[in-house]
Amino acid sequence: MTRHLNPWTGSIARVTRRAFVTVAAFAPFAASAKPAPSAPSDTRLWYRQPASRWEEALPVGNGRLGAMVFGRTAQERLQLNEDTLWAGSPYLPDSPDAYAALPEVRRLIADGKFKEAADLASAKMMARPLRQMPYGTLGDLLIDFVRARQPTAYERALDVDTAIASVRYRTGAGSIRNEVFASAPDQLIVMHMEGASGHLDFDLKYRGPGNTNHAAPNYQGAATEPAANAPVDWHLREEAGRSDKVEVRAEGKDAVLITGWNESAEDVPGRLKYAIRVKVLSDGNVEATNTGLRLSGGTHATLFVAAATSYRSYQDIDWDPVPIVRRQTEAGARKGYKAARRDHIRAHQALFNTMSIDLGRTADADRPTDERIRFAEARDDPALAALYVQYARYLLISSSRPGTQPANLQGIWNDGTNPPWGSKYTININTEMNYWPADPANIGICFEPLLKMVEELSVTGARTAKTMYRARGWVAHHNTDLWRAAAPIDGPNWGLWPMGGAWLCTTLWDHWDYSREDTLLRRLYPLMKGASLFFLDTLVEDPRGRGLITSPSLSPEHQHLFGSAVCAGPAMDRQILRDLFDRTVDAGTRLGSDSELLRQLKAARARIAPDRIGKSGQFQEWLEDWDGEAPDQQHRHVSHLYAVYPSSQLNVRDTPNFIKAAEKTLNTRGDKSTGWATAWRLCLWARMGNAERAYRILLGLIGPERTYPNMFDSHPPFQIDGNFGGAAGILEMLLQSWGGELILLPALPRSWQTGSIRGVRARGGLIVDLHWRDGKMRRLLIKGPPGAAVRIRHGGAARDVRLSNRGVHSY
Known about the structure:
With 811 residues, this protein is an alpha+beta fold.
C-alpha cells in the first residue's frame, strides 16, 4: 500500500492499492525465517554528558524550524534556525557582458589557452555580485537555571523514532526531565521541563545572530575542542547580549516577542524581517520583561517557540511575521504540551515508520553514541550502520517537507551568519546527494521542496540563459540560494559549469521512476524540456570531430594539467546530457508531447562525444587524456563517474570494461576524502558490487574522522550531504534497481550476515522487504502495481516474476 501523507498532520490523503509477491523458495533463496525485531534503543543517540560544542548538540526540526539542543544543566542553549532566514533580498546577478565574451572564451578554449579563457570569463561572464547569499541562524535562547546543582545519573538522548531530544538527571533536590521537539502540525519548537517540587526557576534571554562563533566554547569557555577526557563544567554559561538589529519586548505576563532583520551581503541589502515569540505555560510564577522571561517556584514549564520571516517567495518579501508567531504560540498554549507531543509524534511517525533496517547487533550497540563513533573502525558494530541510515532519514524528514525550503548544505542547522560555503545549495553534487536516499528509504515525500525549488529556478534560469547565452530554455550553474540565483559564481574554476539545472532534472526524473505517478511526470516535463532546449542551443562541435560538447565548462572544481579547471566537454557533462535527453524523450513520449523536439533531442543525443578509457586504463575525466598529469591525483570529486552512480549508463552487467576503468580511477583517487566525497566512493563501490571495499569505506565515514559526536557528517566542517550519501550507500549495498532489474544483496559484507530491511523503495513503483540469514536470502516481499513484471537478480541468477492481479503471488 502506498500512502500519500499530509506531512503536517500525518493523515492519509489517498491510498493506492498495490499487489505484492512473496518469494521464499526459488534458487538461490532458502527457506523463510523472520529476524528478531530491533531493540528500541537502536533508534536512539545517547550520551553521558551535555554538549560542550555545537557539533555535540542534538538537532530537532520540522522541515522549516530547527533547533540544536545542548542538554546543559545550568544553562540550556537552544540554537534556532528558520529555513528562509538568508542574507540579502531579491537580486539579479546575471552579467550583461557575458554573451559578448562567450565566443572569445570558446575560441581560447579550443586553442588550448585555458588560463586566458578563465581570465576573460572571470572579467566578463561571472555573476555580479560574485558570491551568492548565505543562510543564517536565528540566534539562541539561553535558559539559566537559577538553582542548578551538580547532577548525577545524567543522560542526554535523541530518539529518531519519536523525534524528541531529552535530558534526564538527578540532583540533591530531585529528578529533572526536559524534552524538546519541533512540531510540524503546530509549527513550533516545544520545550517541556519538569523539576523537583517548587525548584524550577530560570531566566530566559535571547542572543541575536552574529554574537556566536562557529566554533562553540568548550567546557572551560575557550573556542577550541576539549579533549575526550576533559572534566565537565556542568555550570557553563554563555553571555546573552543582543545585536543592534534586534528588539525584545514583553507581551503580557507570559510571552516575549523578538524581532530583527537579516544581514546584508555582497552589496545586496538585507530586507527580511524575522520574528520569534516565546510563550510559557507553568504552575510557577512567570514574568515577562523587555529582556526576556523569568520563572520561579515551578514544578513544570513548557516553552512554545514560534519563528517566521517576511519571505513569501524568492521575489516577494512583503509579509508580516509577527501575527504568524502570535497565532502559532497562542494556539500551541491552548492545545497544551501533552496534545502537542502526541500530534508531533503521530505526524513524524507517519513518515518515519515507513522503513526499518536491522543489520545485526553486538554489545557495542549499548554504548553511548560518541563512544561507538570513536571506535567505529576498530569494532564490529553493525547496529551503528543501521542507526546511521535511520538518523539520515530523520534528518531529511526534519529539514525537507512539503511547503519548506529544500535541505541545504547543513540541512537547516547552522549557528552563524557566515557559515561554511554559505550553507547554500551546491548543485554540482551536494544538493543532489542530499536526496539520494529519499526514495530508497521510503521518504520520497521529502522531494517536494526540491521540485518546487527547481520550478522556481527554471524561471530565474531562463533569464540567465537569455542574458548570458542568448539561448532558449533555462540554465543553472554550480550554486543557487534562497533567491534562486542561476548565474556562475565564485570564479570560473568553480562556477563556469552549466550543468546544475540538468543534474537537478535527472535527479527529479529518478524520483519519478520510484513512483511512476502521472501527475508528477506532468510537473517534471516542462523543467526537463526547458533544460534540454538550452543545450540544443549551446552545444558546439568538437574541433577534432569527436561529437557535440559543452563549452565553456569544467569537471567540477578539478584543475587539469594546464593550471585551470576551465575546459570543453568534460565526461560528466556528456553523461548528464545523455540522461537528460533520454529522459526528456521518454517523458515527452509518455505524455504525447512535442514530437519534433523529441526527434531533435534523439539526434543530438546520438552525436554527444562518447566516454573514453585513457592510456593508463582509467576512466577518462576530460576529452583529452589528462588524468595522469592532473596535479591533484586524489581530488575529492569523482564527477566523471556519474555514469556509474547515481546514473547507470555504465554498469557491471553491460559495460564491464568501463567498470574496470572506474575501479582504476577510484584506486588512484583513494578511499579517504571529505565526508560527502567518501560517501560517493561508498555508493560507487556498492554499485559495482564490491562489498568489502564499500564496507571499509563506510567504517571510515562513520568513524571519528568523518562523523562528529552528534553523528553529523564532518566535511570537515559539518556538511549534511555526507550523512545522506552514506545512508544511500548502505541501502545500495542491500538493494539496487537499475537496468530493468531488482538486484538483491548486491554488496553484502561479511559483517552483516544476518539482517532485514523492510519498506525499501525500488524503481518501477516497488516496495521491498528482505530478510537474510548467514548471508543467504530467506524471505522476499515485493509490493507494486498489480500485474507488473519484475526481473529479480540475486547471486548471479535472474528470474522474471509477475505481480498478481489479485494482490498476492507466491513461490
